[in-house]
């Protein structure tokens, strides 16, 4: 299976479960992985934003990646988040991490520094040169404070052979369509927004790296497969069915919303690491009501 096949379909940005004392809850992580495998997801993303990677130590990151690869026995492709706002440090992490069992890396745009488009280009060109694996760009300006312009994405896609995809979470459909129009044929545009899966795929997107699918892998897998098969009616029905819950998941930030859902399902405990905290009581109640409306689908 080539990298394009591996990254087409439903990817899940998995949460990192914690115990009440703040330590990583590996048994809960195992339950989550079994839930995702049974739900038919296509690949896993470890140490992403949803995994609270910025609060994990280097040793914890290694342990989480090792656990995921061992528990799943590499039955699914695995993408590892390796990003940051210090280009030199990202390159060092690529050297320090054992990535032999991974299939690609996901690298978020540098946050806080607010680099220019040329700075973004040089950052990713440097990571591309250092990475032993294919690279997925990650554009999420709502978190990073900087947008990767379409022109920069296209320059990287055409100029760096191992930059193979972008996770686009800008919400800017004009920008996303410009990338889809002018990208290399084998470059993938992946939705980073659960609310825009079907619209992006209708324009030629390759799928999604989803937050909500942590809890609902089977229906999200059906949604994505229907979109890939051209069954827009089925895909749209599922997108609209889950839209209210998707909106609630981000009402108090990610991953607070999805951890609330998973805890109500009994898969993990509802603990986050500061500065993140669980969702407010009223948001949690709305999430519970929406889960009841959805049922066990």
Overview of the molecule:
With 297 residues, the protein is an alpha/beta fold. It has one domain: TIM Barrel, CATH 3.20.20. Helices cover 47% and strands 12% of the residues. It contains 13 helices and eight strands. An eight-stranded parallel barrel has the order 1-2-3-4-5-6-7-8, surrounded by five helices. Helix 9 links the parallel strand 7 and strand 8. The longest helix has 18 residues. The model has no long low-confidence stretch (mean pLDDT 97).
Keywords:
297 residues; alpha/beta; TIM Barrel; eight-stranded parallel barrel; 13 helices; 8 strands; 47% helix; 12% strand
Describe how the helices and strands are arranged.
Elements: H1 3-6, E1 9-13, H2 26-38, E2 43-46, H3 58-72, E3 78-81, H4 87-96, E4 104-108, H5 117-130, E5 135-139, H6 141-144, H7 150-159, E6 163-168, H8 173-182, E7 188-191, H9 197-202, E8 207-210, H10 217-228, H11 232-249, H12 256-264, H13 281-294
Parallel strand pairs: 1-2, 1-8, 2-3, 3-4, 4-5, 5-6, 6-7, 7-8
Helix count, per DSSP?
13
Radius of gyration of CA atoms, rounded to a whole number: 18 Å
Contiguous runs where pLDDT drops below 50 for at least 5 residues: none
Order of helices and strands: HEHEHEHEHEHHEHEHEHHHH
Tell me what portion of residues adopts beta-strand conformation. 5-15%
Largest sheet: 8 strands, parallel, barrel
Q: How many distinct folded domains?
A: 1
Sum up the overall morphology in one term. Answer: globular
How many β strands by DSSP? 8
- Examine the coordinates and then state which fold CATH places here, giving the name of the CATH topology: TIM Barrel
The structural class is alpha/beta
Mean pLDDT: 97
Distance between the termini: 30 Å
Percent range of helical residues: 40-55%
